[in-house]
Design goal:
The complex is a heterodimer of chains A (about 190) and B (about 575). Chain A is of the alpha/beta class and about 190 residues long. Chain A is built from 8 helices and 6 strands. In chain A, strands 2-3-1-4-5-6 form a 6-stranded mixed sheet, sandwiched between helices. The chains are: A alpha/beta (about 190), B alpha/beta (about 575). The interface between A and B is large, with 51 and 57 residues.
């Protein structure tokens, strides 16, 4: 649907995906958009994939992004980035945290983790950015702020004012972690190359 | 000022704004957050985890009979457990309004089936409402209570995973001022369902249904959106949103009350559009009733699995409504990617139990919880799982049919056992089973997010209470052989299991280690694989612990991810080369 920004966040349970999804949604609400988001809570803790769809615009009906409609894929893990590829618009953007978390099928030797994920994505999509969010977060002071580093990168592609990002982050993350998350956010903005 | 709320949070808010006195539930995805939100935010409402959905429902019945508004929430299969009181509450009717929230799971994101609970409304002869977003999820709660009190009937509020767990903007309202429940007022004809009274009430039920049908026709919750008259769609719930997304110009009759159907409204709508469609998830619940009305309607949707806007667009394309549906191009990379199934956490106290059961080649009748994941590779050690509590009855049935009790073990979690395993164990005692039951007591209802239950000693509100001790319970039921066992100690586990199986007497074993995620301790002694001692036998990999992996498919040696290892030491006991050793902390 025209006029709606479609974002998908994906990764593995425990990476702070749902928190990031909350922050983006909160920011979009503050800008004044109609916002819908969808997520499957089920298996996050048990090492399964976690996806969250966030859609915002003047009026949003479906909470689910349709295939080929995703403007921005924010992937916290490489394999999950590839798994969601069919959702992305040809001229959509992909930001990937350069991290590999082996699923149990790979750990047991039953399957192989694909090599060259970056290459494959670059063949099919024009805007692919890999960033080491964990490294940025560690430099900011806490590896758990990797999700806000990714949000920093994403913010370069979304027309949401920085004060609104700051406000959303401050309201959502634990009080004692606000400073380090904001720092991680700014560093993500700078280091993304976007 | 609008807030982004999930459907569950919105229902909780709706309960608050409706002046609910009592809210009860048993945890079950996708309904769990309803009671959690009520408990955290609305002290005005008495909120409890009940042992199971039947009890939860009956607690609600009591509140309603005493004149208070009651909200009872559960997942779809939970309604099966609560069905007995539901059907007869339809006969007695209510005093204070009674709303049952049925949160269904099309696509079985975390359920054992995808039954379509809209059928319950028709079967139990009660009205059902179907919200399409969080605002409606909240607003429909109050409408449901009003409907309940106006027509003297329990009302079901239908929800699905996409409504329950999706978030959308909600305008909040004020809590309605309800008089405190006046207390129980005697009325045996109404409340005591002996046959003589029941027959009278049944007649009232049928009359009531007629009046509800009229109401459904006139209710503002039914919304006719006439736009392009080429296509007319009858739909409800999340399907409405998908229809609007995929066919922005179609005419839609959006149903807020989905049982009874507004027959006159449907006929009117059918008369105004060229081609009539119905879009629904799972069963052809609308389609069949609309056909019965004599109308020509085409059903669009899926009998299997969840609906999505993509599936809907494709279905409309296939149905020939090509010009109005959006085209999707599918030229994206189509590679076989490694699956990422869920697994028990590193250090889960359940893992070793299944490892030992597998080693002994026993048939395992299983149950519902985190431990159900033992069915997945590499453990693959759960042989049956049907519904809550079924593990015990199933083991009993196998024993009585085969006249053997030493090759089957029933495995059940603590919360599941309290929910519906006790009566199974009673059967084993009463009907002379010689089998073995293992209760996996990890001191929580884990899979749904670690909720309290009668065996944890704490209520939903976090208050201390009498703890139901499972060992004592088993003994007081008459089981003679009841033993506690530490699942992290493999030798102890194996020897106790051996003894129990070969006992030729009913045996109950209770494991005694809490869910790993309950442990807050940061002090963990992790282990690592000494690469020189490791011979690459891969025995440790058979545990299926997410922390243990082989280095490469060619180099078969194992390694342990230090960020995942929880220090349970089970793999240490399995390794025949003594190659897994504690990591010395020199940081």
């Amino acid at each position: 649907m025209s006029g709606v920004t479609n974002i998908i966040l994906t990764g593995v349970g425990g990476q702070g995906i749902l928190m990031a999804s909350e922050i983006i949604s909160e920011a979009a609400v503050q800008v004044g958009y109609d916002v819908k988001k969808s997520e499957i809570h089920g298996m996050a803790q048990r090492g399964g994939s976690v996806n969250s769809h966030v859609r915002f615009g003047e009026k949003v009906y479906s909470p689910l992004v349709m295939k080929g409609d995703c403007d921005l894929l924010l992937a916290f893990e490489k394999l999950e980035a590839l798994r969601m590829a069919s959702f992305i618009k040809e001229d959509g953007a992909i930001i990937v945290n350069d991290q590999q978390v082996n699923p149990s099928t790979v750990a047991s030797g039953a399957a192989t983790y694909p090599e060259n994920i970056e290459e494959i994505l670059n063949i099919h999509f024009k805007s692919v950015t890999f960033i080491d969010a964990l490294k940025i977060a560690k430099a900011a002071g806490d590896p758990r702020a990797a999700n806000t580093a990714l949000l920093g990168a994403a913010s370069k592609l979304l027309s949401i004012p920085v004060e609104i990002w700051e406000d959303a982050i401050s309201r959502r993350v634990p009080k004692r972690a606000i400073e380090v998350n904001l720092k991680s956010f700014y560093m993500g903005q700078q280091d993304s190359g976007l | 000022m609008k807030t982004l709320l999930s459907g569950n949070e919105a229902v909780a808010r709706g309960a608050y704004e409706s002046g609910v006195s009592v809210a009860s539930a048993y945890p079950g995805t996708p309904s769990t957050e309803i009671l959690e939100t009520i408990a955290s935010n609305f002290p005005e409402i008495y909120a409890e985890w009940s042992p199971n959905e039947k009890v939860a429902f009956e607690v609600g019945v009591g509140c309603s009979f005493a004149g208070g508004r009651a909200l009872v929430a559960m997942k779809h299969v939970g309604v099966n457990v609560a069905a007995d009181p539901l059907f007869t509450l339809s006969y007695t009717g209510v005093r204070g309004g009674f709303v049952l929230v049925s949160a269904d799971d099309p696509g079985m994101h975390s359920s054992q089936n995808e039954q379509d609970n809209r059928n319950y409304a028709r079967f139990a002869k009660v009205p059902m409402l179907d919200p399409s977003d969080s605002q409606e999820a909240k607003d429909f709660v109050l409408r449901a209570f009003q409907l309940s009190e106006q027509f003297d009937v329990p009302v079901i509020l239908h929800s699905t995973t996409r409504i329950a767990h999706s978030k959308s903007l909600v305008e909040l309202g004020e809590r309605v001022e309800m008089a405190p429940p006046q207390g129980f007022i005697k009325d045996c004809q109404k409340f005591v369902m002996i046959p003589a009274h029941g027959r009278r009430r049944h007649a009232i039920v049928e009359e009531r249904l007629k009046k509800l049908r009229e109401y459904s026709d006139e209710c503002s919750l039914q919304r006719m959106e006439i736009m392009d008259e080429e296509i007319g769609i009858i739909t409800s719930g999340i399907s409405y949103q998908y229809c609007r997304e995929v066919l922005p110009q179609a005419s839609i009759l959006k149903l807020g009350i989905i049982y009874p159907l507004p027959e006159n409204l449907i006929r009117e709508f059918a008369g105004r559009v060229k081609k009539l469609y119905v879009v629904e998830e799972l069963d052809p619940f609308f389609e069949e009733q609309i056909r019965e009305m004599g109308l020509d309607v085409q059903g669009i949707g899926k009998r299997l699995g969840e609906l999505s806007p993509d599936v809907l667009a494709e279905s409309f394309r296939d149905a020939g409504a090509r010009n109005t549906a959006r085209m999707q191009e599918d030229d994206h990379p189509d590679i076989q990617l490694p699956a990422r199934p869920p697994a028990m956490c590193p250090g889960c106290p359940h893992r070793s139990v299944f490892y030992v059961l597998k080693k002994k080649k026993l048939t395992v009748t299983g149950d519902i919880g985190c431990y159900t994941l033992s069915v997945l590779p590499p453990l693959e050690t759960m042989d049956t799982c049907v519904c809550m509590g079924a593990s015990i009855g199933t083991a009993m049935g196998i024993e009585k049919a085969t006249h053997r009790s030493d090759n089957v073990v029933a495995v059940i979690g603590d919360s599941t056992f309290v929910h519906s395993g006790i009566t199974g164990l009673v059967d084993m005692v009463y009907n002379k089973s010689k089998g073995t039951v293992i209760i996996l007591d990890n001191e929580t209802t884990a899979m749904t997010g670690r909720q309290e239950h009668p065996g944890t000693g704490r209520t939903l509100m976090g208050e201390e209470t009498t703890r139901i001790k499972l060992l004592d319970l088993a003994r007081s039921l008459g089981v003679e052989y009841v033993k506690e066992v530490n699942p992290y100690n493999l030798d102890e586990l194996e020897s106790v299991l051996d003894e129990a199986i070969n006992l030729d007497k009913l045996a109950v074993l209770v494991t005694n280690q809490p869910c790993l995620l309950l442990r807050r301790s940061r002090e963990v002694q992790i282990v690592e694989v000494d690469q020189d001692l490791c011979i690459g036998c891969q025995l440790c990999l058979r545990l299926g612990c997410p922390a243990i992996s082989s280095i490469t498919p060619d180099d078969k040696k194992a390694r342990i991810d230090p960020s995942l290892c929880s220090g349970c030491m089970v793999c240490v006991q399995i390794c025949r080369s003594k190659a897994i050793l504690p990591v010395t902390n020199d940081e």
